[in-house]
Write a structure and sequence with these properties.
By secondary structure, the chain is of the alpha/beta class. The protein contains 10 helices and 4 strands; from the N terminus they run αβαβααααααβαβα.
């Protein structure tokens, strides 16, 4: 399950699995990737794009493909969605592999939009100033969403560019880091930023902390949690809290690994 929300799936995600052993299922969540309508469309309606809608889509897809039980892999926002799916339908999940762990709590959202700025003060000030025209009581996800849904293309494109710049800044922990080329695509930037802010302003439509508190529902499902020590976009406290609640999960910290640069490390640890 891909991240974002709004990243879309990638053919490279198939590399996490041996195709001679696994039937690999990738899908683009509502509004992202090849899903239609895309979130970047000028008249897009996001009212039917919520976590419950995505969970229903996943269950519909499972039934359509006639899959009784499956291993679920998810990264970043995809780990939130994978946990929500497994807690709702535990009988249909055999194993879980989660990386760049996120549970979309209010604390995590505040960290991503404000707290992590302590490491990137100049970039955060530019990010904050990009939404200065909207007074939302300091809620940057809310302010940016307002700008991103503006009928004025110039306003929404500028906001999308500012959001993309922040996303790129917080993963650039190594001097040789190169941004993903997708950020140069205006449609991707706008669709991604719209979906992230849409979900974050609603805190993912999840009761705060519910995925960690309900970790016991995953009893009997083997799982591995993978997180880069330099993945400062996702607080390490989240994986620590989850593993303390879910005794069957095994956690691995990857030294020197950050968000956006973990593909080979995940391949190495997942042992597929």
């Amino acid at each position: 399950m891909h991240g974002g929300p709004g990243s879309g799936s990638s053919a490279t995600a198939r590399r996490y699995f041996n195709p001679e052993v696994y039937r690999i299922v990738l899908f683009d969540q509502r509004g992202s990737g090849k899903s239609t309508p895309h979130a970047s469309e000028s008249n897009v309606d996001l009212s039917t794009n919520t976590t419950d809608h995505l969970l229903a889509d996943i269950e519909r897809l499972r039934r359509h493909l006639d899959i009784d039980r499956w291993l679920v892999l998810g990264g970043s926002w995809g780990s939130t969605l994978a946990l929500a799916h497994a807690q709702r339908y535990p009988a249909h999940v055999t194993q879980m592999v989660l990386y760049s762990i996120a549970t979309t709590t209010a604390q995590e959202i505040d960290w991503m939009t404000r707290g992590v700025g302590m490491f990137f003060p100049e970039a955060w000030e530019r990010f904050r100033d990009g939404a200065a025209a909207v007074d939302c009581g300091g809620n940057l996800a809310e302010a940016y969403h307002h700008l991103l849904m503006s009928p004025d293309p110039a306003v929404r494109d500028k906001a999308a560019r500012c959001w993309a710049d922040w996303e790129m800044a917080i993963v650039a922990v190594h001097s040789n880091h190169k941004p993903h080329p997708r950020w140069e695509n205006a449609s991707f930037r706008l669709g991604f930023a719209r979906l992230v802010t849409h979900y974050w302003r609603h805190k993912g439509w999840l009761e705060d902390g519910i995925l960690i508190r309900n970790a016991g529902l995953l009893s009997g499902i083997p799982g591995i949690l993978i997180h880069g020590r330099l993945d400062i976009g996702g607080p390490l406290i989240t994986i620590a809290m989850f593993t303390s609640m879910c005794k069957l999960a095994r956690g691995s910290l990857l030294r020197g690994s950050q968000r956006g640069g973990k593909s080979t490390q995940v391949l190495g640890l997942s042992l597929f």
